[in-house]
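Why run this: before we spend reagent on co-expression, it is cheaper to look at a predicted model of the complex and decide which construct boundaries make sense. The entries below are exactly what would go into the expression plan.
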Amino acid sequence: MDPSPDQKLDMYRLMLLARRLDERAWVLHRQGKIAFHISGIGHEAAQVGAAFAIRRGSDWVTPYYRDLALMLALGMTPAEFLMGLMGKRDEPNSGGRQMPSHWSLRRANAVSHSAPVATQSVHAAGIGLAIKLRGDDKVVLTTIGEGSTSQGEWYEAVNWAAVHRLPVIFIVQNNQYAISVRAEKQMAVQSAADKACGLGLPGIMVDGTDVFAVHRAVKDAVDNARAGNGATVIETRMYRITPHSSDDDDRTYRSREEVEENKRRDPLLLARARLQEEGLLSESQYDEMDTQIKASIEEAVKQAEAAPYPAGEEALHPVYAEEVRHA
Amino acid sequence: MPTQVIMPQLGESVVEGTLTRWLKKEGEPVAELEDLLEVTTDKVASEIPSPASGILLQVLVEEGKTVLAHTILAWIGQPGEEIPAAPRPQPAGHAAPAALPSSSPAAAPAADLGFISPIVMRLAKEYAVDLTQVKGSGEKGRITKRDVMAYVEKRQPLAPVQAAWETPADGDLFRPTELVFAQPASAPVPAPAPVSVLPAQPAASAAPAVGDTLIPLSPVRRAIAEHMVLSKHTSPHVTTVMEADMSRVSAHREANKAAFAKEGVHLTFTAYFMAAIVAGLKAQPLANASWSADGILVHHAINLGMATDLGEGGLIVPVIRSAGDLSLLGLARAVNDLSSRARSKRLLPDETKGGTFTLTNHGTGGSLFATPIITQPQAGILGAGRIQKRAVVINDAIAIRPMVYLSFTFDHRILDGAAADHFLAKVAETLQNWV
Amino acid sequence: MPEMTLIEAIRQAQDEELARDPNVFITGEDVGVRGGVFRATMGLYDKYGPNRLIDSPLAEDSIVGVGIGAALYGMRPILEIQFADFIHPALNQIISEAAKMCYRSNGEWTVPLVIRAPYGGGIGGGLYHSQSVEALFAHVPGLKVVIPSTPYDAKGLLKAAVRDPNPIIFLEPKKGYRLIKGEVPEGEYVVPIGPARISRPGRDLSLFAYGMMHHYALQAAQKLESEGIDVEVVDLRTLYPVDKETILNSVRKTSRALIVHEDNLTGGYGAEIAAIIADEAFTDLDAPVRRLAGPDVPAVPFSHPMQDWFMVNPEKIAAAARKLAQW
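The model came back. Tokens follow.
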């Protein structure tokens, strides 16, 4: 079923929020206020489209570091994200232990992940196995970049899901670069979706700049998984508009012309044009939305800057579950 | 107050940056987020937006210079605003090292005894043994620990005073509390009554006399009474008492009170007692146990109950979970939190459950030592008395020290006297040698 | 009390835990129909069915990764790695993921799971069926490393491990699987993870060992008794976190310490025990702290003369202890 007009506006609002927040993070970095940022600009359609295809808060997610829009769609607040950027005590991902954008949000069933890539794919297979063993009406969605599908762990995870018919949706966000290495040096096939066939799963390729197309494709896969028909691999293709991270200078490996050319396929432009065509978002409504989002981000920046840092000795805990102190 | 412009850290591993170009000159206005300067590093090149709106008051770093991240590059503020004085520059180079103290010549050994091991050295000191008198039996005639001890036993048939917990359990310390502390004329100990708690008709009830008042039993009073009777019926209680010198704890507390207060934590002696109990329980896990028909269940987690007096509201024992994993700060924080919430009746039901050991701080009322009753199904309860300055003998001199009696009531089914005193000695030692 | 072998005790522990908690399941290579190559799960497939005894694909990293996912969801997986020698592909999931999950999520996520692996040499297994891997894991905060040596402890410790809320590396001395017999009570009991056990009190020298070497140490102590050397033998049982108190108390009594393991010497687990003793019981020592361990070669060779030369045995332990007692 297609999203309702209200849902469509919600989807766009989240995409715009993710974009403005991401831009603000770059400014904070260039101002010397934060040490690191890894950007999701260009990925908003794929992430929001996928998030709206699951039962958020009930289904499970094992994300990867580029998933700002996905995490916002799952309920992370801008202030929580910003506290994470600053390493503040009460940021929900890790209490300041992990680098920014290493997500975890227990209340949304979004599982903590690490920096070695594709480790989270295997956890998704395990969560899928647990869902199946318990007979729960849930699915698990996991995301990854195309470069990381070169990892053996990704194949092992997809293989488990295929052999045991597990309710897992493997989303590959192919932004065509793994830092500086282009996708054709990661795989000899056209798309990560092609890899699924060899492992016995359906592989779907979808335009990752079209939020509604992604939503439809993921929704079909989720329905299939809920019906007990197992996993799907979906490649969403887009272009990474920013450098890999704040540590990267992409001028060393790609031309400005190439980046400018690809900015024309910005997922936000496409979604906004669609909503305008459907009469859901006028020029003035857009301006109002943008102003409101920017104001809310400034409010969140203030809140995050005022939030306390962890005490040094908090570094000692919690290594073991016995040390966890539930508030 | 003017705003600093700092060299950003443009990447995880990047420690410095080169200021390539100022986009504004000293005295020019600049708006917040407007590009102010260009910086390059070995990873990225970037325009740096201004952190504030105002006038570029002063430029501290010239174009072309490479400086460490977080170096102040310039100040932005309102015209005429005063720039804070720069911190004094660090003197260049390293200070010459202070002259090393001339080492005193090592005392030459009286005779060549061969290698003296650490334990032999220690025992010789403790027992005042002249090692030249001891015949060595080790490799190449080295004097071993066994040689020293054999010499000591031969020289003086009496063994040195052993720690209390190593002595056989036959003193008053190891008799049931009732026998030690009761009046001499007390009746013989009755056979244990069946565990029907609080019988409606007590065996000997006092007859009301004129002027007496009957206070009806509140649910809390009744619950406390039931638990106390049940506990006395369940565990054979024995109390053993030791004392500890609290000088080091007091000094530590004085030195750290302010720092803890900064963390919002009021540092009380209770936190130190808790920490000492944790050390004791780790040394003697049997004190962190429960009796069951199948055996003695030694608990892995250390969950410490703290008896908290609520005045007329009776007594409640909130529990610090996994106290064994908490630092002094963590313990102090938990003590603050639980006692304040206990007093304001905001404890969650689970917060009084699952204790594996209990502390009662009866000294706050002036009591010196006590025979507390065990919280079932735990193996013991430690009472901390009033900390009081007393004259004590140290190295044959009389000194004034803040002393505390530690009363440990334990379940004699689980612990024997020696084992109990092992625990208590560790608690006392932890307090006394606090570091 | 019935007498049983080490492997029977391990099987019984798993049987009882499967019966006790529906969240417990076992996966690994050949654990299902075959009942495990060492028969540790023999009969359990017939009793509990394919949803509790799951034959995994032949890929150790995802056995652990899938276990982690299931544990995050609330299951209590027991993961069998067929030989400890095959655990290395799974180091990524064990060290980067399982061990760090609680810490990196500030306690929001915990990973209760048990990884069982038969380890150790002297069984003609050559380089890849004989390794001792405990030192690798005893270096990793977040894990607990347990090695039982007796059937009684194997059952009690394995049951404790299954109930522990943390990831446990449970290494089983496979040479002892059928060689070591002991009394095991019927039914419910657990042996807590953490405390070491003094299996033979003595006065002259402390011998620290675990696994098969603990039995050899007892044999050596027996032999030395007839020579008038009174050896205390300590079975460490839990290697991490280590029971310092028992180790130090023993050394304070005997003033001499010998640590024995079959793993090679350099950087081995014995170095840690030696360091603890040197650090915290220095003034109780009457002799140097000694280690007896396998030689610093990559692994145990296959051919019997070379294997026998490699292995630590009761005679080598007795010789080393005798020399130390006479120091």
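Chain B is about 25% helix and 20% strand. Chain B has three domains: 3-77, 118-155, 175-184+218-432. Bring this page to Monday's planning discussion.
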